[in-house]
Queue: 2 jobs
Job 1
Amino acid sequence: MGVALDAKSLLETLSYPGLFALPLAETGLLFGFFLPGDSFLITVGLFAAAGHLALGPSLLLLFLGSFLGHQLGYFWGRRLGKGLKARMRPEHWEKTEAFLRRRGALALLFAPLIPVVRTGMPFVAGAFAYPYPRFLSLSLLGTLLWTQGVTLLGYFLGRALPGLDRYLLLVVGLVVLVSFLPALWEARRR
């Protein structure tokens, strides 16, 4: 019997160490994009509201995992950036550099809120040598916004609607849909 890759099963299996490890893997390893970030955070909030997890330690572990994952992603980008540049077309490299100069701060701040982007953006910032002090402060703020905001949303929903954790699949489905709306909006706009 295998472990399902849904937020509730992961949370029950991994418990507190998972609250650190899952966001670390999602934001720090390029293959982590498939992990259930937003739905995991909502589930943590719902479980905390139902008394299955302590809210304070959960918020701290989620933040630390995600923040350190961003730093790891940046490190890997810096380390592998020259190889990436050799494989990219020069015009694509130049467009990405121009984008980071114009919109890099906003992109880094809001990247944690967008699935897949939260995994790739730290790597891209490192590969393109985005100034680390700026990256550090923006990833700190973005990580706080994502981990604390989405988890607290789940917590307050769970407190306002007791028993909501019984409808976890529906709640998680709505969260996944909402988390992809910015990407869908941008694709439609183009």
Job 2
Amino acid sequence: MLMHTQAATALMAPGGDVIALRQLFAELLERPENMHMVAALMAGADVRYDMGEENPAAPTGWFVPPST
């Protein structure tokens, strides 16, 4: 089971401790950088592949960014 699946399952559990954790998590997701990090983790877009270059260009090894 993937880490984000385990975390989502844990957040659905009943109990006062989990309610506090949900509130904290919700507050953390209000920050765009945290939201983007969690979204990338869940989409598998947080993985960067080693392309064998010492100093690759910034997007090397990442998913192709959306075109504008």
